[in-house]
């Protein structure tokens, strides 16, 4: 057992100018809980973190180009040097003229939209149509023979592509299953991992978890006849803060862990964009005897994950956001191999049965150990096709390289916004843009959540009319997510110019 105070001091020594997870040392309580080792923590801190901070990169390039850091030449130079820029051509980029809310008097109708909503629905890979048409053609020509023929036999279609998920989530192939939708998978996992007793009956989650997660946890508690108010333990940010502090999460786990059956957190919070320290939460929770799981909807394809090495008990994710599989795309789930023979699905079906004897039809279940045993039905092949097309792009690009670009891309966006609309300008009653997403690059992925406290304009509507595709989330946030697979640095530059044209029309006339 190690003292949290000492461990956090170690975690804080990342570099001379970086703070790991922004922990406030002066208010850290002293209590004992088993946390990750130094090597374990180092792994979580991502090998892809660049050697210099994004703001330093922007200033350095501006100095080399002999221009101001906000100059368009910086964005163009960053795009020229971007080794991943060709992946943009792998996707269909919507045109201005095709967007429903567009005001054609404000845009060039033939230009590409600025698509910053990959955190809600990723763009369509061009290869999707080819793969879907292959299966439609197979169905048309050979009918039922397609079940065991071709590069994606329909009986094992999901198994044919599951290996492409390994590096994205950091797991062994047998720990991953592709099935259903995220909410269905979370229900199935909770049915197996949440086994409340008279002493251990709570589920711990973060405040303002995604509504589906909240409803699932509520219904799971009700299913067991538990009092939701007493059994649903929600951790809230401190008064006046938007983000959860790591020390507060650890304190709750330490103090109440003996009564917590399952810790169920997001990997990345959907609204704030905050990355939660998954290995530390996992270690702390398991040290108190809790199962620890994560909803990775906003983490998968966005940040590096090492679910197996972190020892996470279970996880689930959708694939239509950063994984670009299309609306309602095939979701995924993870069950750590340590549970392969001890945690069994509460609900089973034909595809829970071992393939070698599945077609004997003797109604004697031979359960597949681990994650694959949680499958109930045969895979939806058209959804397999769209996910397959995207996962092949990830294999070529690699998660590490994408994360490295993402840090700089989002950092560039943050730099420009802070330059024009920092908190300091509020004193002069200048329009202000507040970024509620963490400022430390280790604590966030692609997304920045923006608020406009002293603007009288509907910023979401104004941006939408000008071809910026982002989204609005109550109470007052606009989520902006430059995705490294298909967004450019020039997209970021143009977005900030459009933002300025709305806030300060006179400044952008020239």
Write the layout of secondary structure elements.
Elements: E1 2-3, H1 4-12, E2 32-33, H2 38-44, H3 54-65, H4 72-81, E3 114-115, H5 127-142, H6 157-161, H7 166-169, E4 176-178, H8 182-193, E5 202-206, H9 211-223, H10 228-231, E6 232-235, H11 246-256, E7 260-266, H12 278-287, E8 291-295, H13 307-310, E9 314-317, E10 332-335, H14 355-358, H15 381-397, H16 399-421, E11 434-435, E12 448-451, H17 459-465, E13 468-469, E14 471-473, E15 477-480, H18 489-503
Parallel strand pairs: 3-13, 5-6, 5-7, 7-8, 8-9
Antiparallel strand pairs: 1-2, 4-10, 9-10, 11-12, 12-15, 14-15
Helix pairs in contact: 3-4, 3-16, 4-18, 5-15, 8-9, 11-12, 16-18
Modified residues (N6-(pyridoxal phosphate)lysine): 321
Subcellular location: Cytoplasm
Main location: cytoplasm
Q: Can you offer a commentary on this structure?
A:
It is a single chain. The chain has 510 residues and is of the alpha/beta class. The protein folds into two domains: 54-112 and 399-503, Aspartate Aminotransferase, domain 1, CATH 3.90.1150; 129-396, Aspartate Aminotransferase, domain 2. It is built from 18 helices and 15 strands. The strands form four sheets. The chain has a seven-stranded mixed β-sheet, sandwiched between helices. A four-stranded antiparallel β-sheet has the order 11-12-15-14, with helices on one face. The chain is globular.
């Amino acid at each position: 057992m190690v003292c949290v105070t000492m461990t956090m001091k170690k975690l804080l020594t990342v570099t001379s100018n970086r703070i790991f997870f922004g922990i406030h040392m002066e208010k850290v309580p002293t209590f004992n809980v088993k946390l990750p080792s130094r090597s374990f923590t180092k792994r979580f801190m991502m090998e892809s973190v660049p050697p210099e901070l994004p703001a330093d990169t922007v200033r350095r390039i501006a100095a080399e180009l002999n221009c101001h850091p906000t100059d368009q030449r910086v964005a163009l130079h960053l795009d020229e040097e971007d080794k991943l820029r060709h992946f943009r051509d792998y996707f269909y980029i919507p045109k201005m003229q095709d967007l429903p809310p567009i005001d054609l008097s404000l845009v060039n109708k033939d230009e590409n939209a600025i698509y910053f909503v990959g955190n809600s629905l990723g763009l369509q890979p061009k290869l999707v149509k080819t793969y879907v048409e292959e299966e439609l053609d197979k169905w048309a020509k050979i009918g039922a023979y397609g079940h065991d023929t071709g590069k994606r036999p329909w009986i094992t279609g999901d198994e044919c592509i599951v290996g492409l998920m390994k590096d994205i989530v950091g797991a062994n192939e047998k720990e991953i299953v592709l099935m259903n939708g995220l909410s269905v998978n979370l229900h199935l996992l909770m049915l197996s991992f949440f086994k409340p007793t008279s002493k251990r009956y709570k589920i711990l989650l973060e405040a303002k978890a995604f509504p589906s997660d909240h409803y699932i946890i509520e219904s799971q508690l009700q299913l067991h006849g538990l009092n939701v108010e007493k059994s649903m333990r929600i951790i809230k940010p401190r008064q006046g803060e938007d983000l959860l502090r790591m020390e507060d999460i650890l304190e709750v786990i330490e103090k109440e862990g003996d009564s917590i059956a399952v810790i169920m957190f997001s990997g990345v919070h959907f609204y704030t964009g905050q990355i939660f320290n998954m290995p530390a939460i996992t270690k702390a929770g398991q040290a108190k005897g809790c199962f620890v799981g994560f909803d990775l909807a906003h983490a998968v394809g966005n940040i590096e994950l090492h679910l197996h090495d972190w020892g996470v008990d279970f996880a689930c994710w959708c694939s239509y956001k950063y994984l670009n599989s299309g609306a309602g795309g095939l979701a995924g789930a993870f069950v750590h191999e340590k549970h392969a023979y001890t945690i069994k699905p509460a609900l089973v079906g034909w595809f829970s049965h071992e393939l070698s004897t599945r077609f004997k039809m003797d109604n004697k279940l031979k359960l597949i150990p681990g994650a694959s045993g949680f499958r109930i039905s045969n895979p939806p092949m058209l959804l397999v096709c769209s996910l397959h097309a995207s996962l092949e792009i990830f294999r070529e690009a690699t998660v590490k390289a994408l994360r490295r670009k993402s840090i700089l891309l989002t950092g560039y966006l943050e730099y420009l916004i802070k330059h024009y609309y920092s908190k300091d300008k509020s004193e002069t009653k200048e329009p202000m843009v507040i970024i509620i997403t963490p400022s430390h690059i280790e604590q966030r992925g692609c997304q920045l959540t923006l608020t406009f406290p002293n603007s009288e304009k509907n910023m979401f509507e104004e941006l939408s009319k000008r071809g910026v595709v982002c989204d609005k989330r109550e109470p007052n946030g606009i989520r902006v997510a430059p995705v490294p697979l298909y967004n450019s640095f020039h997209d970021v530059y143009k977005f900030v110019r459009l933002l300025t044209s709305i806030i300060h029309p006179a400044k952008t006339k020239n």
